[in-house]
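hey can u check if this looks right to u? its 268 residues, i copy pasted from the old doc so theres a chance i mangled smth
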Amino acid sequence: MAVLPSGAQGAMEAFLNNCTSCGLCRKVCPFLREYGLPSEIIKIKTESVFLCTNCRACDRVCPESLHPSEALLSLKYELIKEDRLSEDTKKAILSSRAFAMRGHRFPFVYYSRAETVFWPGCSLQGTRPDLVRTVLKNLKIRDNKTGLVLDCCFDPAYQNGDLHFLTEATERIRQRLSDHGIKRVITGCTNCLKIFRLYMPEIETIHVLEALPQRESIPERYIHTQKIYLHHPCPSFRFDEIREAAKNHISSLKTKAESQMPLCCGLG
């Protein structure tokens, strides 16, 4: 569920009209434990809302099936639109824009002429270019024509509720994909997958764990412990198929634990 600029105020009002302030969301969210119930944050329009990481743990436990994460995202958008921000918050938003644009411009931007491409995302391509090459090589086992796109999905703008900036960016991305004849995108990042499905739903998009060839077992040299803990970053909890694909890829390990709720790395 994406919050469009025209529906931001309505999303907040709908939430406030139906929230019972039961407090269950505070039990699963370190941000809400620190700063109060979503309804309280929305009513006073506090800038602390920008510390919300949109992990959606609150949505998962709401007994009224509401979407407090959408309401909080709407508040971010409204505060930006109304220019009701401190200088520190403005600097943070400008910084996130600059970060996204670095991944969107030369030398990082590279669009391949292929109908299917691997889109690793700016974090993976910036920190592990060797892994990007390895993953692309494995993807080509299934489709030798798979290309590579180095770009940024502008998720930092989404996280900040900077939705006008995000919409303009995704329009440019959509045009680039069209100009290069790209019809299918394989993302290496769940945040990228989220942005594509929310803002470019007409493009077929899947996660790399769903696209990689299945292995019967993990090579012995890669196993350093008899027990692992499988942690999904919070965007993964939007996609049941990704969590299932992850389990399939490590099915040869006999003992493992899996988190049942998103754990917030952004707030420790």
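The mean pLDDT is 86.
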